[in-house]
Amino acid sequence: MIMLRLLPRFFYFVICVFITASASAQIDTTQPTSVDPELLALETGKIPKEYSIRSINITGINFLDTSIVRSISGLQVGDKIMLPGGDAFSKAITSLWRQKLFSNIQIFITAVQENNIDIEINVQERPKLGNFKFLGVKKTEADELSGKAGLVKSTIITENTRRNAVEAIQKYYVDKGFKNVQIRVEEKPDPIIPNANSLTFHIAKGKKVKVNEVNFYGNDQVSDLKLKKQMKGTKEMTKLTLYSTKMQSPYGKNEKLSFADYVKNWGFMSLSKTKILLDPYFRFKLFSSAKFDEKKYVEDKEKVLSQYNALGFRDAQILADTMYYTKDGNLNIDLKVTEGRKYYFGNIAWRGNSKYSDSLLNAIVAIKKGDIYNLETLNNRLGKQLSPDGGGSDISGLYMDDGYLFFRADPVETAVYNDTIDHEIRIVEGPQATIRNVNIYGNEKTKDHVIRRELRTVPGERFSRTDLIRSQRELSQLNYFNQEKISPGVNPNQEDGTVDINWNLEEKSSDQLELSAGWGGGIGLTGTVGVTFNNFSIKNIWRKEAWDPLPTGDGQKLSLRLQSNGRAFRSYNFSFTEPWLGGKKRNSFTVNFYNTKYSNAYDYATGTLLKSRADSSFMRIIGAGISLGKQLKWPDDYFSLVYSLNYTQYRLKDYPYSGFGFPGGNGTSNAVSLKLALQRSSVFDPTFPRGGSNFIASVQFTPPYSRINPELAKSDDPYKTPEYHKWYFKSEWFVPIGKPSGADKNRQFVLKMAAKYGFIGRYNKALRVSPFERYQLGGDGLTNSYGLFGYDIIALRGYPVFETSNPNYNPDISSASQYFTIFNKYQLELRYPLVTNPSSTIYGLAFFDAANGWYTFKEYNPFRLRRSVGVGARFFLPMFGLLGFDYGVGLDRMTPGGGLKDASRFTFMLGFEPE
């Protein structure tokens, strides 16, 4: 509003501007009794005249600096302005208003003398924000609102400040299902902070609005249930209906009643005599909150149409959707659909394909005339997006694996007749692309050559999508980089037919540390120190500047571990692995050494600690091994063959263990064995595999000493040089279940299926099977004193270690004193990732295990198994590796009258996943 006002005696010309929503202008022409002629001439003048600003006076300021206001206005003493008709004053007001510091701005002309004018800028300051609080809500909600409302103390309070805060609060509660939230803003001066107001938000959340019913109308071909299954973000409230079977019920037999009425009239005691019927959709909503989310509702409507399209109804539409509230404040949603006609694929013709024949392309697309029309299926078969498995499983993969990076396939409808649609696939093959540059970024520790030797994308080679995906897998297998951030940036250059590949990596810690310590009375210091360096560099071990804190970057693995339990136990372990022996081929080389001793430091006759180590009995194992692995190219390059040569010495001194047949518990056994292992691994992420499989088949054998020298079978010490042949097989499959959930596309159920078999045999029937290298079943998979003798420890969650294959035998009544020569184990695990990031990976699981062991093939029965079920969790931490626990219930341990507690066990693991 612009107001020109003439006042008596103290005459001045006033320009007063108020910024309002209507931007209206109003002129006050009330005439005073006496008039300054120069002001009157300025007011009534029609011809613009130039004036010079003689003085500027700032009024209304209480807290800001007047020079700041003068500077923001842009007006200065001596400025030339045109009146009337100039825009200098309007620009000054706009500049001041833009700062959002003032609620009112006025510019007055207070005096005119010839060509000079005096002006006054009057402003009204906005208050700053002092304190703010939220009333009517929980403290936790108030704390969350403090961060979401966008309020910052000491900032200027504007209408936008209030409006944005109210909208943020509304959105917060709408997302939680409170659609009728009421908010009242109370603003009053802050009693402590000058020129500041405090804001109080009075919040009435109201009742949480849930989706009571979703009703479809017009769906003759597709059932309500199928359509509701697509609306995963808009689920109905779970309904529970009870039907009475009590003749004396006031409702009568088979009379329907609400759950609330049932509880009120009968109570819970008679629930077992009542038939409980569930809504057919109950299984899909058992764990849902049924709250209404506008954004998810819009997405769900699109999913309903996608479901129709997948079933051939490409003309399906949602004509209208209506929402209305029930008496209890919940929401009913009605959707009216028109399905249209159901369509089918007709003829598919190919144009532009010179590389591959029509018959081959038809075989890959695998769509026949008469198949239900689904455009999404056609696009997937053409390979519009990069599939995780790579290869030629679609048309795009077929071409891109042969270098046709610029390939394009566009499906075009050529005819629609009755319910049939013909297509023409128009192909642009383009030139074959050659890889020009391969660049690596983000590797601060790992050397380039360690990364490049894993890559299948080599400069000068033709581009291949399969090689690109395989390279990504190999980098993930190293476990040096954040698997979620391994990104192959493909930059094609169609002009010269080349492509640059930029590998963007993010390194993560892969080393592991194990520390524990304690003090036992009479035993002494106990503890464990273990380190594993997974990206070690032995070449730089003598370079002082490379120790930061250790020489790293060459991809080698070094493991050191020292464990002690005072005088009772001690163990030393060392291993080193070079994964690329020679640096040109994936030939791994490993050496290892271990020395373990278990001492009996007590005199059981007196119950006291032995005075001298020399007096104690012990068993000791010393071993060393060397292995060489070779990657195979047939049947495919996921296969590898590993040769291992091992030497192990077992020694007992006065040790009370009769399993070896050593007289008096004294004896020494020296075992030399050769092991061949054929293995295949196609898993993508070793920490949390989402697909692929693992396969191992191995045989380990010693020389047949008794065949060479039959007299050994009659020896008093037949196991001085033990002999055996040992066979082992393991297979694991990882199958993704359903579709990824949430914004994180890696949140997906994964089913692990595993089967394991083992057998140890003998060369000479006159000798019993070697006491070494047998199979220990049950328990948590951790070794014990008998595990020093090379037993393979096969965990069975929910059971203690047992020695009999008879499931009717209670394994809790005694400990095992002998171990099996044959075993079977089957396993199912349903996994779900909770956290997937480089700092930690956490997932939960539910499992079913079944395993058993036998001593001879005569008693072997692969269907006679001990079974268990349970739940667990795994934590992969960079410095500590695997941490995990399981709670298992042994189904064959449960006895009549016994509780679940008597048949269950907790299992903890650290560092590795037990067999």
Describe, in short, the structure shown.
By secondary structure, the protein is mainly β.
Task: Give a written overview of the molecule.
A 16-stranded antiparallel sheet has the order 21-22-23-24-25-28-29-30-31-32-33-36-37-38-39-40, with no helix packed on it. Strands 1-4-5-2-3 form a 5-stranded mixed sheet. The N terminus is likely disordered. It has 15 helices and 40 strands. The relative contact order is 0.04. By secondary structure, the chain is mainly β. The chain is 15% helix and 39% strand.
Largest sheet: number of strands, sense, barrel closure: 16 strands, antiparallel
Radius of gyration: 41 Å
Number of helices: 15
Our measurement of the CA-to-CA distance between the termini, rounded to an integer number of angstroms, reads: 84 Å
Q: β content, as a range?
A: 35-45%
Structural class: mainly beta
Mean pLDDT: 81
Helix content: 10-25%
Overall 3D shape = elongated
Which runs of at least 5 residues are low in confidence (pLDDT < 50)?
1-33, 241-288, 386-392
Record field, number of beta strands: 40
Q: Numbering strands along the chain, what is their spatial order in the largest sheet?
A: 21-22-23-24-25-28-29-30-31-32-33-36-37-38-39-40
Which key phrases capture this entry?
915 residues; mainly beta; 15 helices; disordered N terminus
Topology overview:
Blueprint: E1 13-17, H1 37-44, E2 49-59, H2 66-73, E3 80-83, H3 88-98, E4 102-113, E5 116-125, E6 128-135, H4 139-148, H5 159-175, E7 182-189, E8 196-204, E9 211-217, H6 224-230, E10 240-243, E11 256-257, H7 259-265, E12 275-278, H8 282-285, H9 294-310, E13 317-325, E14 331-338, E15 344-351, H10 358-365, H11 375-382, H12 395-400, E16 408-417, E17 420-428, E18 434-441, H13 448-452, H14 465-478, E19 487-493, E20 498-504, E21 512-520, E22 524-536, E23 556-565, E24 569-578, E25 587-600, E26 602-603, E27 608-609, E28 617-631, E29 639-653, E30 667-681, E31 692-701, H15 705-708, E32 725-737, E33 749-761, E34 775-777, E35 792-794, E36 822-837, E37 840-854, E38 866-877, E39 881-890, E40 904-910
Parallel strand pairs: 2-5, 6-8, 9-14, 15-17, 18-20, 34-35
Antiparallel strand pairs: 1-4, 2-3, 4-5, 7-8, 10-11, 10-12, 13-14, 16-17, 19-20, 21-22, 22-23, 23-24, 24-25, 25-28, 26-27, 28-29, 29-30, 30-31, 31-32, 32-33, 33-36, 36-37, 37-38, 38-39, 39-40
